[in-house]
C-alpha cells in the first residue's frame, strides 16, 4: 500500500494519504493553506492576495502586505484597516473633540475641517469667540 513515507513533497506542501476506500491509489502532494502550485511535489509559493485581489487596501490610501492565506493593510493617515480594506476614519466622532470650543467638525475623506458656528470667530481648531458687534466695522 503506497504511503506518505515514500513520497517527498516540495516546500510548503504536505503529503495527503487518500481515504481507506481509495487505499490502493497513490498518496498526493498538496499545498498548505495559503500556498499554490501547479506541481506541489516541486514546492508551493505563497498566494499573494494583494496581487490577486488588486490591492484590497484601496489604491492610494493603503499599502498591502501579503501574509500566508491573508494580507494586512497599512493605511494612510485618516484611514484605518477594518480587516478587509482601508476605511475613512471619522475624526469628528472621536470622544476627544478635535475642534475648538464653539466650532463644528465636518468629516472629509482622510481628514476633517473645523468651522466656527454662526456669530463666532477665531481659530476653529483652538477656540471660537463671540463676534463683538459693537467693535466690528
UniProtKB/TrEMBL annotation:
<dbReference type="InterPro" id="IPR009030">
    <property type="entry name" value="Growth_fac_rcpt_cys_sf"/>
</dbReference>
<keyword id="KW-0245">EGF-like domain</keyword>
<dbReference type="InterPro" id="IPR049883">
    <property type="entry name" value="NOTCH1_EGF-like"/>
</dbReference>
<dbReference type="InterPro" id="IPR051586">
    <property type="entry name" value="PKC-binding_NELL"/>
</dbReference>
<dbReference type="InterPro" id="IPR018097">
    <property type="entry name" value="EGF_Ca-bd_CS"/>
</dbReference>
<keyword id="KW-0677">Repeat</keyword>
<keyword id="KW-1015">Disulfide bond</keyword>
<feature type="domain" description="EGF-like">
    <location>
        <begin position="46"/>
        <end position="87"/>
    </location>
</feature>
<dbReference type="InterPro" id="IPR000742">
    <property type="entry name" value="EGF"/>
</dbReference>
<dbReference type="InterPro" id="IPR000152">
    <property type="entry name" value="EGF-type_Asp/Asn_hydroxyl_site"/>
</dbReference>
<dbReference type="InterPro" id="IPR001881">
    <property type="entry name" value="EGF-like_Ca-bd_dom"/>
</dbReference>
<dbReference type="Pfam" id="PF07645">
    <property type="entry name" value="EGF_CA"/>
</dbReference>
<dbReference type="GO" id="GO:0008201">
    <property type="term" value="F:heparin binding"/>
</dbReference>
<feature type="domain" description="EGF-like">
    <location>
        <begin position="88"/>
        <end position="129"/>
    </location>
</feature>
<dbReference type="GO" id="GO:0005509">
    <property type="term" value="F:calcium ion binding"/>
</dbReference>
<dbReference type="GO" id="GO:0005615">
    <property type="term" value="C:extracellular space"/>
</dbReference>
<keyword id="KW-0325">Glycoprotein</keyword>
<protein>
    <submittedName>
        <fullName>EGF-like domain-containing protein</fullName>
    </submittedName>
</protein>
Amino acid at each position: 500500500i503506497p504511503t506518505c513515507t515514500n513520497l517527498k513533497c516540495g516546500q510548503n506542501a504536505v503529503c495527503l494519504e487518500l481515504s481507506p476506500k481509495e487505499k490502493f491509489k497513490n498518496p498526493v502532494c498538496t499545498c498548505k493553506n495559503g500556498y499554490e502550485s501547479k506541481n506541489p511535489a516541486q514546492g508551493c509559493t505563497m498566494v499573494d492576495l494583494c496581487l490577486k485581489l488588486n490591492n484590497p487596501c484601496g489604491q492610494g490610501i493603503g499599502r498591502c502586505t501579503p501574509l500566508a492565506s491573508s494580507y494586512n493593510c497599512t493605511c494612510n493617515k485618516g484611514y484605518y484597516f477594518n480587516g478587509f480594506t482601508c476605511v475613512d476614519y471619522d475624526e469628528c466622532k472621536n470622544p476627544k473633540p478635535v475642534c475648538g470650543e464653539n466650532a463644528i467638525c465636518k468629516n472629509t475623506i482622510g481628514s476633517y475641517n473645523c468651522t466656527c458656528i454662526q456669530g463666532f470667530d477665531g481659530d476653529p481648531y483652538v477656540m471660537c469667540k463671540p463676534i463683538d458687534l459693537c467693535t466690528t466695522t
